[in-house]
Structure formats: C-alpha cells, structure tokens
C-alpha cells in the first residue's frame, strides 16, 4: 500500500492525501451509526485527478468510496472497517463552471455545496429549487448520487428531474463528458439517469448541468391544523385544485414530532399543534404577485375550513415568519436526535394509502412494543414519510435498538411492501438497506441491477457492498 499512497500523493499532492491523524469527519457517518477505517482520504481538485486516482486504485486492486458532504443517512459514503479502502472526498471540486441564462442551466462541480448553488442561482436572478435540511453542508454530487428529494419535489421533482447532464469518471478511470444541458437527446440509453441514484457504485459524478427556473413573484407559507391523516390527504387535493403548479411544498408533521421540537428547542413557538394529531405546512410560489398568492391561499383555507379538513390555520405575514415555520419542520430530526437513539425510516407509499398504512403499522408497533413513540413526518405531497420509531419513555435507547431494530424494520418494510411502496424514497440504500432490497424488490429487477453493476464495474472498485451485492 506504500506504493499506492505515493502514487496518490503524486497525483493530488502530499497535502491532500490524509492517512494519519483524526479522520473522523470522513470515516464516521452523520448519524454516528457507522464508523470505518480508510487507508487514506484523498482530495482531488480536478476531474482528471479523479480519473488518475481511480486508475491507480484499480491497478492496485483497492476499492474506492466516493464522498460529498457526508450528510447521508444510510451509511453509503463511509469506508468499511478494513483499513484498505480509499475515501475519495470531492469537496475541493466546488466550482460553478457556467450559467447559461437562455438555456436556464447552471453547470457545477460535484463538491459544490447545495446552498452555494442556490445562492449563486439567486444572485443571477434564478431559482434552483432543490431544498433540504442539510443544504448548508450537503453537495450536489451527493444529492445526485442518492437522487435526493427534499421539500419541493411536489412541484420540481427529485434531483434526477433537475439534472440535464453529467460528467462522470468510470470504474476504468475514463471520463464521460455528458454536460450538454440538452432537454432532448434520444440517442440510445439514458446514461445520465443510470448514474443518478447509483450512490457511486457505477461511476463517480464530478460535475453536473442542472436546471434553473425563474424566481417566483411571491412565495407564501401557511400552517394548518388537521384532525387526521385522511384530512391531510383531503387538504392536499384541495391545494392541488386551488393552487395547481403554484403548490411547491406540502409537509405533514405528527403531534409527537412537533412536541419534541417544543421540548428540545424551547425558543421556538409552534402554532396549533397541541390539540390535533397532525399539522401541515404548505408553500405557494406564485408567478403573478403577492396579492394573487395571498388571495389563492385564503380561498383554499376557507374551503378547507368549511369542509372540515382543517380546524385552524395561519399564513405567514412576511419572509421571517415563513422561515420560522420552515425551521420548525427542519428541526424535527435534530429534536429526535436530542431525545435519543431511534430507528429511522424513509419510505414512500401512494398518497391515497398513507392513512391506512400509518393506522395499521402504528397498531402493529404498539402491540409489539408497549409505549413505543412514533415520530411521523415528511413530504406527504409526494408520498414520502420519515416514519421513525422512538423508544418508550424512560427506556434505554441503546438497548431498545439492540432488542427491536430488526423487528421494527421488518414490520415497517413488510407493511410498505403490502401497500405497494418503497423502503427507500429519497435517502438511498447505502449499506444499511443493501441486504433488505432483495426481500422487497422484484428478483428480476435485482438481477438487472447486478448485471449493470457487473458491466460497468466488473472488478468491484466503486463503493462495494452498497445498493446491490454481486
């Protein structure tokens, strides 16, 4: 391995091959559930350096784990415990290469932080709509590798839908230059979509051309109290009817999830949550004016109140109030972490089936674990829930995980499968779910995935043991 380290230093420079000292920032995942040991952390600055690193590692028979901001939740971007893998950090590749106003595109390198991309687009007079709680530290390469979703999928789609082109280093160290930014290119297989969501197992994304949108004339946020999940689904239908494509966000939050925010972030004022099982956060991005947006919102909420699917609601009066409401929603994962270790799920079910799914699964978990607490929240507008499970009050959280994690996952995933859903909506598969996928995905689909992996990475150099096992 000494020869490989020397070669890697020759490629990226001595200062950017880290093999000693505290490497926790790269070797431990955000949840602190996975901790590995890297042979070295390698930090290239150019696509050519990435290609040279891949070739060197392939020649040495050393596998590579690509990493962006290391904000993933499924253990997909940290090394294993062998001490033999190279951790390839792309954070130095953070340049905005080009903005094309006429084509409504922006081309950025994979290590560009999402918030920097958002800010650059806004400064140029455009909107880049991908929005996540981790946007201050996650990178666009990581977003693409997991096909991240976030809070505006309802209007703009997942990261896949926002991407028009990629630059990728293959497992053989070749560079695919596919950054054209074309909206129509029907010359064979869609290689772009193949790499998006593959979690670095088929190739290493080094740059991307992303869609831009005109800035909305006005963006308004409302918070509504709803008597049940059925009523939340009914409110969604009304919102889609009244707001059409102006509806950019529709988030549901369970009462217990909001109570954790109130408990652990006492400075936050959370409206309307104490007397209802769920609250909904809606966003209306209007292309006409604030008056038009507010009129639409008021008509929607009046109708919802008349039909009984909303018991009370507030509309943010200004941008600061809107940010406060969104901050409450984004603080739920942090509040849950403060409450103690928990079992996280990122599931998708058809919107129409979510109330029945939750009712049945809540009952099964309560029967299995008396006193269990459900932290249920997420993107109801696109059928994606973060259906998380917290230990009973006063219990040993670590022991709870040891005793129940496997059983809880089985219950949750079996129910997802029963209702025709997916066990991973926006977080990816990583190492945490890789052995679950064959249980809940068609054997034909799994074998096709294996065939793609064998074709593009026959030596298993790129992020082995993630997404699919050979």
Notes on the protein architecture:
By secondary structure, the protein is of the alpha+beta class. It has four domains: 2-89, Uridine Diphospho-n-acetylenolpyruvylglucosamine Reductase, domain 2, CATH 3.30.43.10; 96-214, Uridine Diphospho-n-acetylenolpyruvylglucosamine Reductase, domain 3 (2-Layer Sandwich), CATH 3.30.465; 218-333, 2-Layer Sandwich (Alpha-Beta Plaits); 340-418, Alpha-Beta Plaits (2-Layer Sandwich), CATH 3.30.70. The chain is 37% helix and 21% strand. The protein has 16 helices and 19 strands. Strand 18 and strand 19 (384-390) form a beta hairpin. The protein is globular. It starts with a helix and ends in a 14-residue tail after the last helix. InterPro entries: FAD-bd_oxidored_4_C (IPR004113), FAD-bd_PCMH (IPR016166), FAD-bd_PCMH-like_sf (IPR036318), FAD-bd_PCMH_sub1 (IPR016167), FAD-bd_PCMH_sub2 (IPR016169), FAD-linked_Oxase-like_C (IPR016164), FAD-oxidored/transferase_4 (IPR051264), Oxid_FAD_bind_N (IPR006094). Keywords: FAD, Flavoprotein. One of its GO terms (molecular function) is catalytic activity.
């Amino acid at each position: 391995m000494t020869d490989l380290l020397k070669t890697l230093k020759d490629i990226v420079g001595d200062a950017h091959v880290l093999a000693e000292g505290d490497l926790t920032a790269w070797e431990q995942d955000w949840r602190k559930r996975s901790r590995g040991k890297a042979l070295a952390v390698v930090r290239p600055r150019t696509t050519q350096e990435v290609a040279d690193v891949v070739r060197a590692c392939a020649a040495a028979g050393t596998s590579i784990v690509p990493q962006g901001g290391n904000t993933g939740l499924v253990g997909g971007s940290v090394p294993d415990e062998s001490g033999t893998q190279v951790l390839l950090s792309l954070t130095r590749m953070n340049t905005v290469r080009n903005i094309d106003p006429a084509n409504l595109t922006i081309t950025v390198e994979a290590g560009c932080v999402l918030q920097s991309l958002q800010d650059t687009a806004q400064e140029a007079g455009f909107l880049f709509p991908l929005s996540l709680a981790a946007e201050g530290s996650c990178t666009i390469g990581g977003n693409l590798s997991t096909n991240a979703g976030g809070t505006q999928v309802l209007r703009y789609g997942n990261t896949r839908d926002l991407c028009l082109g990629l630059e990728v280093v293959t497992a053989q160290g070749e560079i695919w230059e596919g950054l054209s930014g074309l909206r129509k290119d029907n010359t064979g297989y869609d290689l772009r979509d193949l790499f998006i969501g593959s979690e670095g197992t088929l190739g290493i994304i080094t740059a991307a051309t992303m869609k831009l949108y005109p800035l909305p004339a006005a963006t308004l946020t409302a918070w509504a109290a709803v008597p049940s999940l059925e009523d939340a689904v009914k409110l969604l239908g009304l919102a889609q009817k009244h707001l059409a494509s102006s509806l950019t966000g529709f988030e549901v939050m369970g009462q217990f999830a909001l109570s954790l925010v109130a408990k652990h972030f006492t400075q936050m004022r959370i409206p309307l949550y104490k007397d209802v099982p769920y609250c909904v956060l809606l966003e209306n991005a209007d292309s006409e004016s604030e008056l038009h947006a507010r009129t639409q919102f008021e008509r929607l909420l009046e109708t919802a109140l008349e039909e009984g699917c909303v018991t009370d609601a507030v509309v943010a009066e200004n941008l600061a109030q809107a940010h406060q409401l969104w901050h409450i929603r984004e603080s739920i994962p942090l509040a849950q972490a403060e409450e103690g270790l928990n079992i996280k799920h990122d599931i998708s079910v058809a919107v129409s089936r979510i109330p029945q799914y939750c009712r049945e699964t809540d009952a099964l978990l309560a029967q299995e674990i008396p006193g269990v607490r459900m932290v249920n929240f997420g993107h109801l507008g696109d059928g994606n829930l973060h259906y998380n499970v917290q230990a009973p009050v006063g219990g040993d959280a670590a022991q709870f995980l040891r005793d129940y994690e496997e059983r809880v996952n089985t219950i949750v995933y079996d129910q997802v499968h029963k209702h025709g859903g997916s066990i991973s909506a926006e977080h990816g598969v990583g190492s945490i779910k890789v052995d679950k996928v064959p249980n809940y995905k068609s054997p034909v689909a799994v074998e096709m995935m294996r065939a793609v992996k064998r074709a593009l990475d026959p030596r298993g150099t790129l992020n082995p043991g993630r997404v699919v096992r050979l």
